[in-house]
Amino acid sequence: MTDFSTKATNYIRRGKGRPVILVHGICGSLQQWDRLGGDLTNAGYEVIAPDLLGHGDSPRPRPDGDYHVDDVYTHFERWLDALQLEALPVLVGHSLGAYLSLNYALRRREKIAGLFFASPYFSQGQLSRPIRTSLRNLEFGKTLLRLAPQWTIRSALRFTGSNGERLPRKIRNKLARDYKKIDPGVIEYARTTRNLVPQLHRVDAPTMVVWGEHDLTLAPESFPELCRHLPHAGRRELPGGHLPHLTHPDPFNRSVIEFLGALRPVPGLAGFGD
Fold it and tell me: Which element (helix H / strand E) includes 71?
């Protein structure tokens, strides 16, 4: 039986103010939010970012086994509830992190103040053809992740979008380290996700969607579609590919801070409504 204990969950918690939960995507880690986290704490927010189940330094309850997206969601929900936050948080999610955040918004709608998404995943129909093909042979993908040296992964991550934009070496190094730290079984998550479109009309929280116009992982045209289904969604397209928070941090971070600043103040919380 899978261990969903949240006690060993690796996460950071810094700053004071409205809580902002930063949720990374598949094969990522909380370190992908370093730049945004610093900007948010400087702007007067509390930043909390976990390593999801099977990622970074969080538990791996199914070593080299099969993971289901319900595993990572259950772990995420229990961890978030265990924080016992004094104010409603804003969830900032990238890719799979957005999928988890959308599920939380659908199941615990009274528990959030807003949603901010980077290249959000919400349906398998968004996946590019190469990725859909790879889902049919996940055992090969797991073996490749387990055996590939870090330099090979770093080289494969050279380009961030179909426009040929190069991913800076520093970012590639960070991403390659994240890939080598995951349990390879986490790539099962994508195959077990459900189409959230039929439920999106129930997400009543203020939402902002940001994406890269040359995304090679998820179809760029799917993001405006998501916005059409969400009742209160703004949108912004940036250059680049699937990692706008890493490749274009300045405009991305400004968008997050502007979104947070437009939300209703939190009465009694230092810096909000006093």
Answer: helix 69-82
